[in-house]
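PROTEIN DATA CARD
Card holder: OpgC protein
Chain length: 376
Origin: Roseiarcus fermentans
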Amino acid sequence: MANAKRVGDIDFWRGAVLIAILVDHIPGNLLESVTPRNFGLSDSSEAFVFISGLSVGMAYAPRAASRGLLAVARGCFERALKLYGVHLVLTLAALVIFAAAFWMSGVEDLIEAHGRSYVFDSPAAGFAGLVALTHQLGYFNILPLYIVLMLWAPLALALAMRDVRLALAVSAGVYGASRVFGLRPPNWPEPGTWFFNPFAWQLIFTIGLVSAIVWRKGPPRAVPSLVLASLAVVAIAALVATSVAGVAPGLHDAVAARLDLAKQDLGLARLAHFAALAYLVAVAPPLKRIVDSVVGRAIQGLGRNGLSVFAAGCVISALGQAFLGATQPYSSAGIEQIAGLAYTVAGVAALFALARRIECRNTPVPPSAAVGFGAA
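Structure generated from the sequence above:
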């Protein structure tokens, strides 16, 4: 019963993250200004990867104990292969959407921004890069990270089942080496490196995986000193992110220049802020009541069908970007904001409708089978 409750909590937060990702991926809409990234040093990316690690740990640790690590490695590889196929389909869908929007509007930015220009200018090399995962479109670059993390998962799980401290030490060592020596997968055919560096981001994934193993006997306890320290980190981060609610203009930029906030390499300030926030979420009783509410259960539905909802969100956000980009030359800023808000609300509603339809049509997947995105 307690395990089912923890799975429900994870589904809720996975669903909430998917909503935030959709809102943040439709630039210019009014809701974009109230997502968590505006009030702290981390954003939905950290939550996405941590929850993925947590889900993998919950799903595969029992399987490793009963069927062995080879079965786990095979399952993780099959999952990575499925994610690879989904990534390619979503990328191609995005290219078709933006090409169609350009054809109808003539707005060149639609086929030039966020890595799209190389595919249209040099199709052979561009598509080869897409297939090799060395060329990733903007807003479509988190699945390649997750694919690599699923390949890393069997080793991380093997280490964690021997000793969670060993898993964390090895993961931290890989993270440290990536930061010190600049280890990053290269882009091709364009220069540069991956937007999400898997050598760095595996740390937060591994922390999630280890947490699943540690929490099998129960959720974390609220330790007063840790709660106070976490509250201080979250509060200070909120003041910095908002420049004290606009009272101290320039504070965010001044402080950010002195903190390790690199998103590509999972800056330490981002990691510390997310760790504090995640701990508070895990031990806060009022939030548990929200999770169990009517709205909370609907959000859990998004999380239970995470991969389908994520894929739909990618298509919805691409359609929104294309529509707003194509109409921008012909509309005022006010009209664009209203249209963006209306579209975003409709998009979120569509995600709920999709999850509801899937759950009404199919037999629900047992909670222990949910991995990363939940039911595929």
